[in-house]
Design brief:
Elements (H helix, E strand, L loop, with lengths): L9 H15 L4 H25 L2 H8 L2 H21 L1 H8 L1 H12 L5 H9 L4 H27 L8 H32 L1 H25 L8 H28 L4 H11 L4 H11 L5 H27 L3 H13 L1
Helix pairs in contact: 1-10, 1-14, 2-9, 2-10, 3-8, 4-6, 4-8, 4-11, 4-12, 5-6, 6-8, 6-14, 7-8, 7-10, 7-12, 7-14, 8-9, 8-12, 10-14, 11-12, 11-14, 13-14
Pfam family, one: SBF_like
InterPro entries: Na+/solute_symporter_sf (IPR038770), Put_Na-Bile_cotransptr (IPR016833)
Protein name: Bile acid:sodium symporter
Length: 334
């Protein structure tokens, strides 16, 4: 029986099932710790496989794509704060001061790393550029986000553990990637012949991140902290913010003449915000404040961006591969 074109793809349906499971059966205590370990291992394996797959020439080309990186940086740290301020007259009366401050805090955060790269990979975007852009966003966000928070929210927190944050990012992302690069001479051909492994790890890491993050949100009282009507307005505000970010990044990528693979990378790296960075940073920046309300917009936006970007990535993945080759040929001819 033919599948209805109105039915979401299997991966999106699986994401919905994971969210429902986390709502009804959230990971608690030792189970949550176990899932955190499994998620970290999956993310490390993802970067190890990408390191083994990508040639040094491709990585250097990705790092040197300065126009793409500059656009992602502007979208992450300039466009989002401006959108947050522009939505203030509509959102503040509906959600209140604390949730709106959390909304602004969301806009000041760096881009997410794991899911941005995973979605770029699924959508057959420029993976080397995505790795360089997302990692740089995370590292720069350690310094830029506190400045934006002080500017937008007039909040000055205690000095954060910058060295510890850099160490964590390096151990989780850069070290496995470098290890994969070192191992490439022995396993590079095998990884190239078994690309389905990358897809499994990409999707698996996203599902694990969704379950772990949503479990923590549910246990933290996600459904009890605010009235249903206020929660509904906040969800709508997050949807509008994401729609604007996706639309503007897509238009800018096309308007500035980037090819399809680069536009996909700009879309997924320039429109996402990091829950993994935002939660621990909030504990430093908002000492003595109601952290739960301040990070609630981030938790909601994180889930919405994963669901929407999963559907977009699957849509891009279904395009014919010869279309990418044709676009690359046209660009080269210019």
């Amino acid at each position: 029986m033919a599948r209805s074109r109105f039915l979401p793809d299997n991966f999106t349906l699986t994401l919905v099932a994971v969210v429902l499971t986390a709502t009804l059966l959230p990971a608690r205590d030792q189970v949550a710790v176990l899932f955190e370990w499994i998620t970290n291992i999956a993310i490390g394996l993802l970067f190890f496989l990408h390191g083994a797959k990508l040639s040094r020439e491709a990585i250097l080309a990705g790092a040197g794509h300065w126009r793409l990186h500059l656009l992602v940086f502007v979208c992450t740290f300039v466009l989002f704060p401006l959108l947050g301020l522009a939505l203030k007259p509509l959102l503040l009366p509906l959600v209140g001061k604390d949730l709106y401050l959390g909304f602004l805090y969301l806009c000041a955060l760096p881009a997410t790393v794991q899911s941005a790269i995973a979605f770029t990979s699924l959508a057959r975007g420029n993976i080397p550029a995505a790795i360089c852009s997302a990692a740089a966003s995370s590292l720069l966000g350690i310094f830029i986000t506190p400045l934006l928070v002080a500017l937008l929210l007039n909040v000055h927190g205690d000095s954060g553990s910058t060295v510890e944050a850099i160490r964590k990012i390096s151990l989780q992302l850069l070290v496995p990637f470098i290890a994969g690069q070192i191992a490439r001479r022995w396993i590079g051909e095998w990884v190239g012949r078994n690309r389905n492994w990358l897809k499994v790890v990409d999707q698996g890491s996203i599902l694990l991140v969704v379950y772990s993050a949503f479990s923590a949100a549910v246990i933290g009282g996600l459904w009890q902290q605010v009235p249903p009507a206020m929660l509904g307005w906040l969800v709508l505000g997050c949807c509008v913010l994401l729609a604007l970010a996706l639309g503007i990044t897509a238009l800018l990528g096309r308007w500035l003449g980037f090819n399809q693979a680069d536009r996909i990378t700009i879309l997924f790296c320039g429109s996402k915000k990091s829950l993994a960075t935002g939660v621990p940073m909030a504990q430093v920046l908002f000492a003595g404040s109601t952290i739960g309300l301040l990070i609630l917009p981030l938790m909601l936006f994180h889930q919405i961006q994963l669901m929407v970007c999963a559907a977009l990535a699957q849509r891009y993945a279904r395009r014919p591969e010869d279309l990418d080759d044709a676009q690359a040929t046209v660009k080269g001819a210019r």
